[in-house]
Amino acid sequence: MAPTVCLSDGDDEDGPISFKRTASVKSEQEDDSEDEKPLAMRTTRLTSNASSTSRNSIKRRPGDSNTGTSSPLKKAKHSAIEREPKAADAHDNKIPLAPRLTSVKPSKTKPPAKNATKNKKKSPSSFTKDSQKGVEMKAKKTVRNSRLSKAMKVRQGSGSGKKWSTLEHNGVMFPPPYMPHGVKMLYNGQPVDLTPEQEEVATMFAVMRDTEYASKETFINNFFTDWRKILGKTHIIKKFELCDFTTIYEWHLREKENKKQMTTEEKKALRDEKGKREEKYLWAIVDGVKEKVGNFRVEPPGLFRGRGEHPKMGRLKRRIRPNDITINIGKGTPVPVCPIPGESWKEVKHDNTVTWLAFWNDPINQKDFKYVFLAASSSLKGQSDKEKYEKARKLKDHIDNIRVNYTKDFRSKDQVKKQIAVATYLVDKLALRAGNEKDEDEADTVGCCTLKVENVTCLPPNKLQFDFLGKDSIRYLNTVEVELPVYEAVKEFCAGKNKGDNVFAEIDTIKLNAHLKELMPGLTAKVFRTYNASVTLDAMLNKETEDGTLLQKISIYKRANKEVAIICNHQRAVSKSHDSQMAKLNEKIDELKVQRDGLKAELEKAKKGKRPGDDKDGSRKKKLTPEMLENKISGIEAKIEGMVITKNNTEESKTVALGTSKINYLDPRITVAWCKTHEIPINKIFSKTILEKFGWAMDVGPGFRF
DNA sequence: CCTCAGACTTGGAACAATATTT
DNA sequence: AAATATTGTTCCAAGTCTGAGG
Fold first, then answer.
1. In chain A, how long is the greatest CA-to-CA distance?
2. A:295-334 Cβ neighbours of strand C under 7 Å
3. In sequence order, what DSSP letters do the residues of A630-674 get, joined into one string?
4. A237 vs A204, A314, A449, CA distance in Å?
5. Neighbours of A28 (CB within 10 A)
6. CA A610 to CA A355: how far, in whole Å?
């Protein structure tokens, strides 16, 4: 192995690195057997202790309330030493063996083609009842074979992109009108009168008092500017500094408290009522099949909560009215009635080349749209999800070639080629996002193609340190050893430029993707993320799962999941209870240690002669033989060890978010197959909703490999 | 090409529901 | 039973990528 990419130092097991990839990125050759492994790895990121500097700092949104953890960029995770699985807590669930996976009915992979198919089988769970409910009667040709049919359609789109033939739904639901509370805020110490509209906006702000937004200058300015438009030029309120929203804030707290105090029945009544109101909006009928609608609730007005340093944070997101909304519905099907009397939809379309049911323009950014789509459990979404994974799997067949290809171009004379090669390498190896250009009026974040000179530091002899804010202003901090030509190339790209200049000045995502498409049809940068994630999960699960208890197996899954999350840089804010949680663990550990030491002392005594029988203390407590004591001690020691492991895991995972990869990057079939093979009830891994979303993957055989 | 409207996926936090502890 | 901790769900912001039209 020669120049390997990863430098993980030795170790194999808990080494800092996730994957020691031996395979090729480097020079081509290599045994192929290895190539399935993702290149991704984080060197320093996971490296030892020093790491406190390393990957941490989560950039929190200003919004998060919790007073606690105030420090936004607090320390965060440290190294990530992978520790053994160790089942931490113990709730032993009884182990229902037998994977009931199989039971799930056939996934409906219906081709989008024309006409409905007749399967009504719904995803895994429950609502069979609803779905059956007669919706649909049209029998049509059922084209199976989704994989193929899909591919073709996408590729050449004979019928172009027809997404459905018939579409029925009831439109969208509007939030209730504003109910004025009449609580007067103070201006310059005096109560002020506000119209309901003015009060509404004041309340939006007042209520955010304990979020970080409330103290951000941009937020305040934007809010105040928009609010003053509503107050009018002549209103007494002129200066933000003289505003005191406390009264309204306190009213809000009281409301919250009241709500909490409601009895269970009251709450239930409320829920039922809500359910009743929403009922009709919950479902759409697509090609005769009843499907859940994703987000039929129109977003209520509020103050925009942009993430990171968003220039528009605090702006008023005005109320959306029917007249803002465009409805998409099957031709000939009844148009949803506009729920607000006297008003009407902006437009009604019958476009079956798209999947949205409705949309409106984002009031903050006129050019953006807010769509109402079907839920993730719908077959339309399921199908494209499946296609996404199939495409990622296809990448397996091309990856060797792609790597050879870009490796060759590392030294290309053609600057564009060279930059594309290096960018592709980063996308492949680090699973970076493509990095589209962004507008001035958005938070300043970057991805691969938009990396700035200041985001990359060359550390001789051949390491690169990345430090930038990516999507959602989440910080990406990672130091990686790269192939020498890459290192040299990056150095050259940065030479003589300013901090804020693009590293890849010659390329953008369009060019990058255009190039990728030449290497494999349909290939784009994001496919590498999916590929990387799924390949990693598949490899880890298959390599590491051995016989063990259910808990142990689940722990292995979590570990693999976590590995993927780290590769994708999926982070979360540390929970406000984290510290106390740690403290509690430490306490318990100390307690055990005390116990252990006590026993040790006793053991000494016991060994020193005294036989179990004799001793002055006539106490009833029976003496233990040395062996018994030793047993006890080792028992406690094992316990301690277990707790230390949990503690370390907790600490190491406090900034890692597992959900995102589970939902978006890991081919569910890997999980399903693994569960079947190892007799793990799938619901130990997938929650109900996610199970519904992955209905299409449930009947895969235990032999499935990504 | 390039722009830019458009459509759809991905993302973390807020919030709600449950489970566990006190 | 109340208080907490944990897990699951919803919300809506922020990405990616495509395609039409110049």
1. 98
2. 295, 297, 299-300, 302, 304-308, 310, 317
3. HHHHHHHHHHHHHHHHHHHHHHHHTTB--HHHHHHTS-HHHHHHH
4. 17, 18, 46
5. 13
6. 83
Query: For residue range A430-463, what is the model confidence (pLDDT) as tens digits?
Result: 999 999 999 999 999 999 999 999 999 999 999 9
Give, in Å, how far the C1' of C4 lies from the CA of A183: 33
Residues 432-451 of A with CB under 7 A from strand C: 433-436, 438, 442-443, 445, 447
Q: How far is CA A590 from CA A90, A104, A634, A641, A650, in A?
A: 20, 48, 16, 12, 17
Q: What is the DSSP string of A259-275?
A: HHHS-HHHHHHHHHHHH
Catalytic-residue membership of A178: no
Closest-lying nucleotide for A513 based on CA to C1': C17
Domain-embedded: residue A643: yes
In A271-357, which ranges are E strands?
283-286, 289-292, 302-303, 316-317, 326-328, 347-349
A523 and A457 in a common domain: yes
CA distance A283 to A294: 9
A525 and A384 in a common domain: yes
Distance A637 CA to B10 C1' (A): 44
Domain hosting residue A427, numbered range: 380-529
Give the highest mean pLDDT range of A12-16, A392-396, A574-578.
A392-396
Q: Is the CB of A353 under 7 A from strand C?
A: no
Task: Indicate whether A386 and A521 sit together in one domain.
Answer: yes
A500 and A584 both lie in a single domain: no
Nucleotide whose C1' lies closest to the alpha carbon of residue A688: C8
Q: Do both A393 and A502 map to the same domain? A: yes
The Å distance, CA of A677 to C1' of C2, is: 43
Q: Which residue has the higher pLDDT, A14 or A590?
A: A590
Q: Say yes or no: A492 and A388 in one domain.
A: yes
Q: Are A508 and A446 contacting, i.e. CB atoms less than 8 angstroms apart?
A: no
Long-range contacts of A594-599 (CB under 8 A, 24+ apart): A595/A636, A596/A633, A596/A636, A596/A637, A596/A640, A599/A629, A599/A632, A599/A633, A599/A636
A504 domain-assigned: yes
Q: Note whether residue A432 is domain-resident.
A: yes
- Residues contacting residue A158 through CB under 8 Å, at least 6 positions apart: A152
Given a contact cutoff of 8 angstroms between Cβ atoms, the answer to whether A649 and A88 are in contact is yes
Q: How many domains does chain A have?
A: 3
- Residue A545 carries which side chain, given as an amino acid letter? T
A509 C-beta less than 7 Å away from strand C? yes
**pLDDT higher than threshold 50 for residue A306:** yes
Instruction: Give the domain-ending residue among A227, A245, A265.
Output: A265
Closest-lying nucleotide for A385 based on CA to C1'? B9
The reply to whether A525 and A607 lie within a common domain is: no
DSSP per-residue letters across A113-180? SSS-------SSSSTHHHHHSS-----------HHHHHHHHHHH-TT-S---S-EE----BPPPPP--
Tokens at A684, concatenated: 């130990």
Q: Which residues pair with A464 in a beta bridge?
A: A458, A480
- Domain-terminating residue out of A496, A529, A562: A529
Q: Has residue A522 been placed in a domain?
A: yes
Do residues A462 and A600 both lie within one domain? no
Within 576-595 of chain A, which residues have Cβ less than 7 Å from strand C? 577, 580-581
Give the CATH number of the domain where residue A208 resides.
1.10.10.41
Q: pLDDT for A198-251, tens place per residue? A: 999 999 999 999 999 999 999 999 999 999 999 999 999 999 999 999 999 999
CATH of the domain at A433: 3.90.15.10
